[in-house]
Amino acid sequence: MVSPAQDDRALDRRVLAVLCADVADYSRMMDTAEEDTHRHLMRLWSTVIEPLVASNNGRIVKNTGDGFLASFDSGQDAVRCALSLQETLAQAQAPEPAEARILFRIGATIDSVIVEEHDIFGNAVNTAARLQQVAAPGGIVISRALLSQVQGVIDLVADDLGHLRLKNLHSPTHAFAIRSSGFEHLPVFARPYHKRTRLPSVAVLPFRTLNSAGATDYFAQGMIEDIIGALASLRDVMVISRGSTLDYTGDEPPAAVGKKLGVRYVLTGTIRRAAEQVRITTTLTDVRHGAVLWADHVDGALTSIFDIQDRVATKIVGTIAPHVREAELARAVRKRPENMDAYDLLLQGIDLLYSMNLNQFLRARRFLASAIEADARYPAAHAYASLWHVFNIGQGWSEHPEADAQQAWQLASSGVALDPSNSLALALCGHIKSYLFHDYLAATSFFDRAINCSPNHAWAWTLSSGTYAYMGRAKEAIERATFGLALSPADQHAFYYLSFLGLAHYADESYEQAVEWDRTALGQNPHFRAGLRVLAASLVALGRRSEAQEIARALIREQPSFRVSVYAPQCPWQNAQTRETFLRRLVEAGLPE
Questions:
Q1: pTM to 2 decimal places
Q2: Which domain holds residue 407?
């Protein structure tokens, strides 16, 4: 118990550089070679880690088992230590097989912390830990505050990762991946890919307040901050900073303002307050043609201002991205092939990818490959090419599922290596880990990183729901799938989101809801075979055998070669009994063993 005297003592607060390190893929390594991995880590700890921290005037605050937390009085010492650690670890392990090498992720920042005898506390600790999570294996990510102390003093290469929205931190953190300029074997990070690949740009203009007193100006400003922050965490649109739009008075047409700002889309809005009620109206305009792509309004009570801001921002972001993508796709389809860049090629590949029609699916692969060829450093192209292989397996089209699974993993991993904060690539890494390799612990780690980097990414929430369903954590799966759907309600490929919600309800044994969601999904795309499988099993669970047989016949029409025994090794349920029950229900539905 803390005594009053202890509780009232003055806190020891200092400005320190904080370094957080963690072993990448530690659970997998321990699972496959526990004793060898432990001995290897302990050897590196005594021969590399402890000596280097000490020689750079650092203090190891605590050992976390597969990582450590260290503090330094000087930001320069912290950065020199991080660089030396990664370089020395890479050199020391060069003779080891790639799968046996222990790779650390390192995150670091500098700020005021509370110092206790055996621990340190404060935002710097949380920030360093979150930056570590977005670093590549063998890589280092530091904050802008720390970079400013060492730039020009230490010879290094810094790659701007942008403003990352890190979990449980209120404000975005401007982060940089660093490496020594003379040591090229550390992970290389691409500079922001929008410099090479054209992405649609959006400006959010100040919302107009329609009440005469102007009492809701503060509310309008907060709304703009929320929307810009949420849009900034997405990777398929570029949003310009609020500072660029402050001079807009509302007198000029949105399209004219958009042309001045050099953006393709403009979001405008009005806020009308009456007593304790508020109406927020928003409009998305295509600058080139002056056409309104989308308009909507939200009504609510002002009893909880921040809750309304969050709800409106979520709805706007979830609707803007699909509408922008559809408008961009329509443009891309009209362009001559030789004039397309990676973004246009990617959009056409995505459109064909989701058709679940084999001929169009094969064409999708060519577009995705062309997108990578047009810009090999474009993470989204690698991520969607990875998804192509996932679908190829799930639809039963793959002649070599194991090779496709490896290719899916390599492409998704490439997306993360190119951009460690790319939520789509991270989420696909997680989905591949659980769906194809049944490594659920590693999967949840990737999903945590994806959502840390982009809290409003519909894909990250939706794909993670599948993994939580496979693990039997059904309530969490439903929550995640529901939120993912809410973040992308207007998506033309919503059948995919709906299917995951059906899967989550199957895991929850709420079979009526599973049937409802899967039928809705298949109504949008009747060719999605994963949805057909879950629907058939759900109907059997309800005792609706004739309906289940009808769905089984539909699946056989889609995939005449389907056999439950062939599908069984791919079946992703973690619990053996759940998996056996699912497979038995497919047989009871009339699918051949």
A1: 0.57
A2: 374-588
